[in-house]
Each structure stands twice: as C-alpha cells, then as structure tokens.
C-alpha cells in the first residue's frame, strides 16, 4: 500500500503508538483522581489534548474545584490555538475539513507535519499522526481506566508518584534553554508560596498569570514552550525543517525519543 | 455546576481553541508577544502542576514519597527514557519509598 511507503506516515504510526500507550497512564490516573470511566473517556474523546487532560485531573486530584480544573486545562490548551494557525497555513484544509483537522491538532500531529518539507508528506503526516494518536489514545485511556478501577487505593500503588512523573515528563522537553527553565522555576516557586493561602487549584492559576506576565515582559525567545512535546524525527535530520514556531530553536534537540525514520 | 459540567465545558473550550486557530488570519503568527505568552503559559502551568502534585497536600506543603518520585522521574528523563517508562519509574519510586517508610 502506497501509504506505508510514505516516510511521514511511518513516523506518524510510531508516534501514534508511543503516544497512545501513555493514554494508559492518563486513564489510570484519571480514575485515581476520582473521575468515573465515562468522564475519563469524555476527556480523551472530546478534549483530546494530553497536557490539558492531565492538568484537569491533576487539579481535581489535589482537591481543586471543577472551575480551577477547567481553567487550568483551558489555559494549557491555548498553544493548540497557535498550532491551529500553523496547520492552517501549512495544509490549507478545505472548509469542511477544518473542523476535523482542528480536533486532531495536537503536539504530535503538528510535530510530525512540520518535520516534513514536501507539502503532500506534511499533509499525510498530519492526518496519520492525528488520527492514529486519536484512536490509540482513546483505546489506551479506556484500558488504563479499567485497570485503574481494578487497582483501588492510588497511594498504595504509587500512582501519585506517577502523576508527578507525568507532569515532569510533559514539562521536560520544553525547558532545555535557560529562559524557559527560569520561567518554570519562578512559576513553581510562586505556586508553592500560594498553596497555604488559597484553595487547592488556585495556585496553578496564579502561576499561569505569573507566566503570562513573564511572557508579556518578553522573557525568553518567542518560540519557547511552543514546540510540541514530542520529537518524531531523530536529531540531525530536521535541519531544514524548523519547528512550529519557525523561530530560532534553542539547543538542537539531541534526544532520540520517539520514532526513527 | 457538577464535575460533569466542568468536564464538558473544558472539552468545548478545547475544541473551540483549536478551531479558532484555523479561522484567525495567519498574520497573528508574526506577533512575537502573543507567541511568547502562549509559550510561557504552557511552561508555567506544567511547572505549577509538577510542583503542586509533588509538594501540596490540600493547603499544606509536605515532603513525602512523591519527592522521591520526582527525583527518580528526573533521572529517567535525563537518561532519555520514553514517557511511559518515566511515569512507571515515578510510580515505582513512590511505592518503594513508602514501603521503606516514607510518608
């Protein structure tokens, strides 16, 4: 089949498998946070943005209110709007396709598409990664949620440690340069300082305001934090394919995570 | 509003955010300030979520087995482990630390 000879599709499939698998951890952590199976699936099917989904359940798990959880998820999803602009420029989808394209506009599909130079390959990479991740992410969310339901007390299994690791894992690829690392440290400190004084969940929103102020003040290069948190292409192969921000990339990514072409 | 309400509202906002990106003029992409705010928001929120999930217990700051999970996850990330391995390492580290008597 010609599709499987496309380098973008091959990359997209391995990205989809790797990303889909960590739907397991989302499903398990979501039911541990107190959401039921249907609520967990609603997040994966409809919200469909890993970082925002983890943010939502992370706030709930910490005792935060629904409105704090929703706000954290919404703010973390703003980058998807920026990705949307980039995908729109890149793929020029027809009007009716825009809605479908928008739904699968996530870190993984954007990274796969922007790593290609040929427009046809960009299109194939975007759709293959977007649809592939959507299908597998939802299947594995279901599996993780069912497993989590069977496991019982989250602390006994170290699931609270898993949540910590998941957030650090989402943050890690975005803080390789000095300015973004500084933003991360400042926001983490501000959050912890706020914890004793405001209801759970609110410290995260205070950190968001802090981050926005730092961004407005011009701290850090323009594209920091807007690079998708996946690296579908091995380092060295993407020299002529700038990331979604198309701006100066900080350190060349050297991590070989994700797929090999 | 019930938890369901907030979940569905979060879903609606997510869908709308993505879709709006396809509707606004591409010229916005040339606005470095907008990109910078979106980027620093992402970093700041993820850092805040990491911190809260590690040290907060309700409105109290505590040091418990989750710190061990954070350190173990950082080590795994530094060794370039894939995401799912990092998460498993975090769970394992917290579980072991509790077994050894950490709160």
UniProtKB/TrEMBL annotation, chain A:
GO CC annotation: plasma membrane
Highest taxon of the lineage: Bacteria
Membrane-crossing residue ranges in chain numbering: 12-35, 55-78, 126-148, 154-173, 180-198
Compartments where found: Cell membrane
Ranges where the record places region Disordered: 225-261
Membrane-related topology note: Multi-pass membrane protein
GO biological process entries: L-valine transmembrane transport
One Pfam family of this chain: AzlC
Ranges of Basic residues composition bias in the record: 250-261
Entry keyword annotation includes Lipid metabolism: no
Signal peptide: none
InterPro entries documented for this protein: Brnchd-chn_aa_trnsp_permease (IPR011606)
Main location per the UniProt record: membrane
Coiled-coil residues: none
Keywords: Cell membrane, Membrane, Transmembrane, Transmembrane helix, Transport
Family, similarity comment: Belongs to the AzlC family.
Full protein name: Branched-chain amino acid ABC transporter permease
Originating organism: Arthrobacter agilis
TrEMBL record, chain B:
TM annotation in the entry: 6-25, 37-56, 68-97
Keywords linked to the UniProt accession: Membrane, Transmembrane, Transmembrane helix
Entry protein name: Branched-chain amino acid transporter AzlD
Organism encoding this protein: Arthrobacter agilis
Lineage: Bacteria, Bacillati, Actinomycetota, Actinomycetes, Micrococcales
């Amino acid at each position: 089949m010609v599709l499987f000879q496309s380098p973008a599709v091959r990359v997209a499939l391995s990205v989809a498998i790797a990303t889909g698998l960590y739907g397991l951890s989302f499903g398990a952590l979501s039911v541990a946070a107190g959401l039921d199976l249907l609520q967990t699936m609603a997040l994966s099917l409809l919200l469909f943005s890993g970082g925002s989904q983890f943010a939502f359940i992370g706030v709930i798990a910490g005792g935060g209110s629904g409105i704090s959880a929703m706000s954290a998820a919404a703010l973390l999803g703003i980058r998807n709007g920026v990705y949307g602009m980039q995908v729109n420029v890149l793929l020029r989808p027809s009007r009716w396709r825009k809605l479908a394209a928008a739904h699968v506009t996530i870190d993984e599909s954007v990274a796969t598409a922007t790593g290609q130079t040929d427009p046809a390959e960009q299109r194939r990479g975007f759709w293959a990664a977007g649809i592939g991740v959507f299908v597998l992410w939802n299947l594995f969310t279901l599996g993780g949620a069912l497993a989590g339901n069977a496991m019982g007390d989250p602390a006994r299994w170290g699931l609270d440690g898993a949540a910590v690791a998941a957030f650090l894992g989402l943050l890690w690829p975005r803080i390789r340069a000095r300015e973004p690392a500084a933003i991360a440290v400042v926001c983490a400190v501000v959050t912890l300082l706020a914890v004793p004084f405001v209801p759970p969940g609110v410290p995260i929103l205070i950190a968001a305001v802090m981050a926005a102020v730092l961004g407005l003040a011009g701290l850090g290069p323009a594209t920091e934090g807007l690079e998708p948190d996946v690296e579908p292409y091995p380092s060295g192969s993407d020299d002529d394919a700038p990331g979604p921000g198309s701006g100066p990339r900080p350190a060349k990514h050297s991590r070989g995570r994700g797929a090999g072409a | 509003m019930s938890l369901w309400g907030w979940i569905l509202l979060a879903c609606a906002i997510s869908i709308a955010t993505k879709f709006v990106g396809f509707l606004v003029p591409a010229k916005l992409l040339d606005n470095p300030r907008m990109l910078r705010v979106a980027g620093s928001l992402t970093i700041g929120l993820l850092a805040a979520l990491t911190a809260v999930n590690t040290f907060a217990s309700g409105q109290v700051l505590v040091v418990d087995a989750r710190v061990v999970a954070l350190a173990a996850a950082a080590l795994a990330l530094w060794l370039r482990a894939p995401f799912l391995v990092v998460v498993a390492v975090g769970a394992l580290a917290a579980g072991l630390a509790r077994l050894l008597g950490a709160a």
